[in-house]
Write a structure and sequence with these properties.
The complex is a heterodimer of chains A (445) and B (461).
Chain A lengths: L2 H11 L2 H9 L3 H10 L2 H9 L3 H10 L2 H10 L2 H10 L2 H10 L2 H11 L3 H8 L6 H4 L6 E3 L4 H11 L8 E5 L5 E6 H6 L6 H4 L7 E2 L4 H11 L3 E5 L5 E6 H19 L15 H6 L2 H20 L1 H6 L7 H24 L8 H31 L2 H31 L8 H24 L3
Parallel strand pairs in A: 1-2, 4-5
Antiparallel strand pairs in A: 2-3, 5-6
Helix pairs in contact in A: 1-2, 3-4, 3-5, 6-7, 6-8, 8-10, 15-16, 18-23, 20-22, 20-23, 21-22, 22-23
Chain B lengths: L3 H12 L3 H9 L2 H8 L7 H6 L3 H10 L2 H10 L2 H10 L2 H10 L2 H10 L2 H11 L6 H4 L6 E3 L4 H11 L8 E5 L5 E6 H6 L6 H4 L7 E2 L4 H10 L4 E5 L5 E6 H19 L14 H28 L1 H6 L7 H24 L8 H31 L2 H31 L9 H23 L5 H11 L1
Parallel strand pairs in B: 1-2, 4-5
Antiparallel strand pairs in B: 2-3, 5-6
Classes of the chains: A mainly alpha (445), B mainly alpha (461).
């Protein structure tokens, strides 16, 4: 994007007319991205030259840190007007990200509107409640189609989506749903309950966000209603939020697989170096202690090693290949649990199947490494030892890589949790043990 | 989601061809029926389809992955198949035909209504993983000089077959895309206004050749329910809907996670489900790593004199290699994911690199300290423990740099950053870790001889 230089120039020249015409061509999402690449003051300037309607949309897209900066540095009344136009779930997300002092500043801008938010704020962020918005449309089941359409036209401006209309009884309990499509196509005088869908897919307010996103995806919905234990409609989660959740959860899985403890998203800005190091440390430490045990294994066989130093040349390849296959298996099983593709959750069946894969990988790589060893060192028996150890290693690796994520899942933990480092560490100990035992046995050391 | 006993009951009704079955199936969501079907033996699946209306049957069939649709179709007569196909949306038919032998697809294609035949013909030519391969041609369009009430009538009339009626696309006589309107805006607008007065002219659209991952990103980024697909002269060809975009996203995410673990992405086919097929996808990177690891071995070989004079050095090879590999993979995961979600941009990239490197330094100091202590407690050798600690510290800093810089470099060279897999990084990191370890120990343990320095040179060259 060369546009950023152009914008910066216009900002410095204070050429607001030209800036206005340039920005008019931009989608609010793109303006938000521009702002993230500008300095704070520049982005403030840019924001002040936006039209009110565009400003509201742009505000919805920028990160919480900048949102707070802009809202607290704008003229007070303008900021108040802006924040009241923001959707409730966006404001709740913003508040969730801020420190206490910053939170108070935003709450004071909200004035009496803040009481509507308190309920939204009480739900954990990664649940259906934390993701939902309260700006949905619900009509009583007795309402006629024509009346509903007219009412809808009135309410449409504020609602997050008008494409699903939820139907409730006098107690506010969810009894049905109609799509705008059904409503438009229905005869004018029929009451909604005559053509509504009664088999409504919904989620409990405490449901995990991952599950919510999966349901939206599974059924191809544009939004999913959120209810409490008494089936009272509380809000909706829309498909664009579900897409965000899917991305976040994937990030989390990838980071956890590699042994980082991350509860939120990748944050390039405000995280301190110590926090960055800290979230990676626990599994690394575990691995250090485990690998010291691997060292002890080598120690036990140090006389063998002294006789044939060449044995040590193959420690890296055996350790690494085991780790690689273990990581591959863990990635496959974690991902198939996440997408719901796993045919059976039985640990035994999956581990056995992976053992098959592991044997094939082990034999192919075992043969290859044995050949290379022979060519390099010119010793048939050494080649045999390395080949056998490799075959065994990779078979066990595939099994362990499948076993741990499934075990975590069975006992109610996140299957992605540090399966990589854990599997690798256990494998290294086992692999070296097998390697040196085979060596002492075959080479008669 | 369905309770187990309901599933059993439904199976029982259908397999016994009870009258109840039709009613129950009519009220179930297609995704739920598909789930029940996946547990039904081949050969019995057709019973379900015979008890549904053709439009419901089409929706259920669409729930299956394209390659899973084939065995179901095999069970049905051609006439039954055609009836279902007539009710499926064109993009789904295309996906199905691409899985079939050409002759079978051709013969089915000829029996479909003429207008579908033409559309399908042209769609089948598009690449599978582009906007063109993903789009459907069932959408609602209007002309810019129509009035709002005429437009609403059009939606009522043509809306039944359209994939979405929530966006209405505005075109000229030659079908050039001129604007877009949401149904929300349409129904809240005064009935006598002209469409061109209220439409948005700044339309987010994608080119027919655009990569599907890009298309999904655009839909997600702008929070759209659908995005129009145009050709180079801006003619409207079709739309891609948000549910298809979510599926693409899932596929791409799976691909990313697999690539990170060194698994070659491959179209998911019946083949990849066999054990040999599953193994094949993983072999390529394993071979590459195996070769790299032999290099690590030759580093040790280069220092075998040092090792011979002090076997205890070998005891710390595992801990150094494994920790370096882990730190490298962690950094890699952060970088790959940062690139994929576009969290990393020009402005913050340097900050990110320096931040993660400093974090790597901090990890290096902590882990180096701990491992030095452990070494001392175990071997009671201050020099050795200093060598191990210092090597750990340096190699962790290098590991985090390699983990971050390699994917960024790939990105710069326009190679998919996820190709820099964990195993690949681990292999590079191992070579660097072992070189650091033996160089540091050689100096510290005072066993440096000209002989070894010569070997070091050889290894590095």
């Amino acid at each position: 994007m060369n546009n950023i230089e152009e914008i910066q120039e216009l900002l410095h020249e204070k050429n607001h007319d030209k800036l206005y015409t340039v920005l008019e061509q931009y989608h609010p999402v793109d303006i938000a991205q521009l702002m993230e690449e500008l300095s704070q003051d520049e982005s403030m300037d840019l924001f002040s030259s936006l039209e009110f309607d565009t400003a509201v949309q742009v505000l919805g897209e920028i990160d919480s840190y900048r949102k707070h900066f802009i809202l607290t540095n704008l003229e007070y009344n303008y900021a108040r007007k802006l924040i009241r136009e923001m959707s409730a779930d966006d404001v709740a997300d913003l508040l969730g990200d801020l420190k206490d002092e910053e939170k108070r500043q935003i709450l004071s801008l909200l004035g009496e509107n803040k009481y509507d938010l308190i309920e939204l704020l009480s739900y954990a962020r990664n649940t259906a409640g934390g993701r939902m918005t309260t700006e949905y449309i619900a009509f009583p089941k007795e309402m006629k189609a024509k009346e509903a359409l007219d009412k809808l036209a009135e309410l449409a401006v504020d609602a997050e989506t008008i494409y699903y209309i939820y139907v409730v009884d006098s107690e506010g309990r969810l009894v049905g749903v109609v799509s705008l499509r059904d409503l438009i196509l229905a005869p004018e005088n029929t009451p909604i309950e005559d053509f509504m869908q009664t088999d409504v897919k919904k989620v409990n307010v405490l449901q995990e966000q991952e599950e919510v996103a999966r349901l939206i995806q599974k059924y191809g919905f544009l939004a999913l209603p959120v209810v409490d234990d008494d089936n009272v409609l509380l809000g909706i989660v829309t498909v664009d939020d579900a897409m965000t959740v899917v991305e976040e959860e994937t990030t989390e899985d990838i980071l956890k697989l590699s042994g980082s403890n991350v509860d939120e998203d990748i944050d390039v800005g405000q995280v301190s170096i110590w926090t960055r190091a800290k979230r990676r440390l626990p599994w690394i430490l575990l691995c250090i202690f485990g690998e010291i045990i691997s060292g002890r294994v080598i120690d036990d066989f140090s006389s063998a090693l002294q006789t044939i130093v060449a044995l040590s040349f193959f420690i890296p390849v055996l350790m690494d290949m085991g780790g690689n296959v273990g990581t591959q298996s863990a990635a496959i099983v974690v991902r198939s649990i996440a997408t719901g593709e796993l045919k059976t959750l039985s640990i035994a069946k999956n581990v056995l199947r992976e053992a098959g894969v592991g044997i094939i990988l082990g034999l192919v790589n075992g043969l290859l490494v044995a050949a290379i060893t022979y060519v390099w060192q010119g010793k048939v028996l050494l080649g045999l030892v390395v080949g056998i150890a490799m075959t065994f290693n990779l078979t066990i690796a595939a099994m362990l890589g499948t076993f741990f994520p499934l075990l975590w899942y069975k006992i109610g933990q996140d299957p992605a949790v540090a399966s990589g480092p854990l599997v690798t560490t256990i494998l290294d100990i086992l692999g070296l043990l097998v390697y040196f035992s085979t060596a002492t046995w075959i080479l008669k050391l | 989601v369905l309770p187990k006993k309901d599933v059993l009951l439904i199976k029982h009704f259908v397999l016994n061809k009870s009258d109840e079955a039709q009613k129950i199936l009519a009220n179930l969501h297609p995704a739920d029926i598909a789930q029940i079907l996946s547990e039904i033996k081949n050969g019995n699946k057709k019973l379900f389809f015979q008890m549904m209306t053709s439009s419901k049957a089409a929706e259920v069939l669409e729930e299956f992955e394209p390659y899973d649709r084939l065995p179901i179709i095999e069970e049905m007569t051609e006439a039954e198949t055609i009836k279902i196909l007539e009710n499926m949306s064109v993009d789904e038919i295309v996906d199905l035909f691409q899985q079939m032998p050409t002759a079978q697809a051709e013969s089915l294609l000829r029996k479909l209504p003429k207008e579908d035949y033409e559309v399908l013909r042209s769609l089948l030519k598009m690449a599978d993983d582009t906007a063109g391969g993903l789009m459907t041609t069932d959408y609602v369009y209007i002309y810019s000089d129509a009035t709002v009430s005429e437009a609403i009538n059009d939606v009522r009339q043509f809306g039944h077959k359209a994939e979405t009626i929530y966006y209405i696309y505005v075109v000229d006589e030659k079908k050039h895309l001129k604007g877009v309107l949401s149904l929300r805006e349409l129904i809240t607008a005064p009935r006598d206004k002209k469409i061109h007065e209220i439409m948005h002219t700044n339309v987010v659209a994608v080119n027919v050749d655009q990569d599907q991952e890009e298309v999904a990103k655009i839909i997600s980024r702008y929070s759209l329910l659908a995005v129009p697909v145009v050709n180079d002269s801006n003619r409207l060809l079709g739309i891609v809907t948000v549910d298809d975009a979510m599926e693409v996203m899932e596929e791409e995410n799976t691909e990313d996670i697999h690539k990170m673990a060194g698994i070659t992405p491959e179209e998911d086919t019946a083949f990849s489900r066999t054990i040999w097929g599953a193994s094949k996808k993983r072999l390529l990177w394993l071979f590459i790593c195996l070769m790299g690891d032999m290099l690590s071995g030759s580093v040790i070989d280069g220092f075998s004199h040092v090792l011979e004079s002090m076997v205890a050095l070998a005891f710390f090879i595992p801990v150094l290699m494994a920790t370096g590999g882990n730190v490298g993979t962690q950094s890699l995961a952060l970088a790959v994911r940062g690139i994929a979600t576009e969290k990393l941009n020009r402005k913050n990239i340097l900050k990110f690199i320096s931040g993660e490197t400093l974090a790597g330094g901090q990890l290096g100091v902590i882990c180096g300290g701990i491992v030095a202590l452990l070494t001392y407690l175990w071997q009671r050798d201050a020099q050795l423990s200093l060598a191990v600690g210092l090597s750990m510290c340096i190699s962790l800093i290098l590991a985090s740099l390699i983990g971050i810089l390699v994917p960024l470099l790939f990105r710069l060279l326009n190679i998919d950053p996820a190709v820099a897999s964990g195993p690949f990084i681990t292999t590079i990191v191992d070579i660097s870790t072992l070189s650091v370890y033996f160089t540091v120990s050689t100096y510290l343990l005072d066993v440096l001889s000209s002989n070894i320095a010569g070997t070091l040179k050889e290894v590095l060259v």
